[in-house]
Recover the amino acids of this structure.
């Protein structure tokens, strides 16, 4: 991700509905697990790493951007500059790996999932999020450095090829998909921008409502996947 996009994301993420609601998903998933050692790959400025720390995890952020690592360290986080395809982490040493909106930036995504599997302890888990559905491809994807958007089969395939067992796979941001699709058709660049407080609150409320509805099997804007290293 470009330095400009990291700056924009860091400035927006604490209040923006999309980041806030995605972190609600992260918190819910973390509370299913016993805290241990965590690695947040492609962490940017460490917004998700902060959630890991707040939930009791011994967390390290990694990012290929030196600027992102500096931002994370300024926030008081442990951060290491590293390529997701070649992590400087001991094999079998991590209980949880998070890779939220990372794989879509990497041409050789299979190398990144192989690294995730390598650093996980037996029984360790990976939580992965990616943008879904190439029909939603737009100037936004190009502006933020995406290589692809995933379908359920392509995401499952690259994770299972690395030797991980998929436990759960679900869609997120389902109710807002029609709105996103319409916006993306006229997109001229990144969608990362400030939103009027009333609109921000309304969009957040829609995503919060989604948690209570049986829509996870429908098409959304993002795919979440939880996988386990068996041995």
């Amino acid at each position: 991700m470009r330095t400009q996009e990291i700056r924009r994301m860091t400035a927006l993420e604490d209040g923006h509905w999309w980041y806030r609601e995605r972190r609600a998903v992260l918190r819910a998933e973390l509370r299913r697990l016993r805290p241990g050692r965590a690695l947040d790959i492609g962490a940017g400025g460490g917004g998700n790493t902060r959630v890991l720390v707040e939930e009791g995890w011994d967390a390290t952020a990694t990012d290929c951007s030196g600027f992102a690592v500096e931002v994370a360290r300024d926030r008081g986080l442990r951060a290491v500059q590293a390529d997701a395809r070649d992590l400087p982490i001991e094999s079998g040493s991590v209980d949880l790996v998070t890779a939220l909106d990372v794989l879509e930036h990497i041409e050789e995504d299979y190398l990144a999932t192989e690294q995730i599997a390598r650093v996980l302890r037996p029984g360790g888990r990976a939580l992965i999020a990616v943008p879904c559905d190439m029909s939603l491809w737009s100037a936004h994807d190009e502006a933020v450095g995406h290589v692809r958007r995933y379908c359920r089969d392509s995401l499952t395939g690259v994770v299972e090829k690395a030797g991980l067992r998929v436990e759960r796979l679900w869609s997120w941001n389902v109710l807002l998909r029609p709105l996103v699709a319409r916006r993306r058709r006229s997109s001229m660049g990144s969608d990362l921008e400030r939103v009027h407080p009333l609109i921000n609150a309304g969009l957040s409320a829609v995503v919060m409502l989604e948690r209570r509805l049986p829509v996870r099997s429908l098409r959304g804007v993002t795919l979440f996947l939880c996988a386990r290293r068996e041995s």
